[in-house]
Amino acid sequence: MPVRPLEPLLAEKARVELGEDVNRIEEHIRTVKLWIAEQPHLIARTDDQWLVAFLRGCKYNINKVKKKMELFYNIRSTSPDVYCVKYNEPKIYSLLEMGICLIMPKTKIESADPRVVVYRIGQFQTSKYHMLEFLAVLLLQFQHVPKESLPVEYGDYWKIKMREYHSWFEEDTKYVVDESKRVKNASLKSCFKQINEID
To answer: What's the pTM value of the predicted model, to 2 decimals?
Structure first.
């Protein structure tokens, strides 16, 4: 899957603030893919668009990308409560309909301004749902589904999107960390390397 091109204003923002060089994006993505391929314990998504999100989030610092990816997939494996609501559960649609989190529409067709998000926590029904369930739904929305254009009331919009991306979510459930396959003594080798560098 090719990387979606940014709008001109966002592209300039990425260049200035993130150090993004459009001529080297593919090179950076290849570097991350090679690293993932060398990690037997890391069962990670390798879509170009997914990886460039990590690169941008770390300002193209490859070492930070590695640490962030390790942490991201480790949380999935060691803290299942954070992902307690699965994409195909009926309750996810009920949570979306509550309208607790509203993403405001863009004020301009082409703009580099941040999107305004309104949280209406008072709408959350604590008698029916646990707060972790609400947070799990937010993780599904904000990490995985494109948000180029959203209405203010978007319960129906998200329900449609969840169905459209069914295969994406189904595939995404398999990406985790398998500690049984992690290279033994990897952290120990790292320590020795640091000691040698000091010497």
So the answer is: 0.69
Task: List beta partners, residue 101.
Answer: 119
Q: Is the dihedral of CA 61, 52, 100, 93 positive or negative?
A: negative
Structural domain boundaries in the chain: 8-78, 83-172
Helix H or strand E segment including 118: strand 117-119
**CB-based contact 120:101 (threshold 8 Å):** yes
- Specify whether the CB–CB gap between 139 and 86 falls below 8 A: no
Q: Return the closest-CA partner of residue 160 out of 175, 150, 171.
A: 150
Q: Which helix (H) or strand (E) holds 103?
A: strand 101-103
One digit per residue, the tens of pLDDT, for the chain of length 199 reads 679 998 888 899 999 999 999 999 999 999 999 999 999 999 999 999 999 999 999 999 999 999 999 998 888 778 766 665 666 667 777 777 777 766 666 666 666 677 777 777 777 777 877 777 777 666 667 544 444 444 444 556 666 766 777 777 777 778 888 888 888 755 434 433 443 443 3
* Residue-by-residue DSSP string for 135-158: HHHHHHHHHHS--SS--SS-HHHH
- How many angstroms separate the CA atoms of 60 and 56, rounded? 6
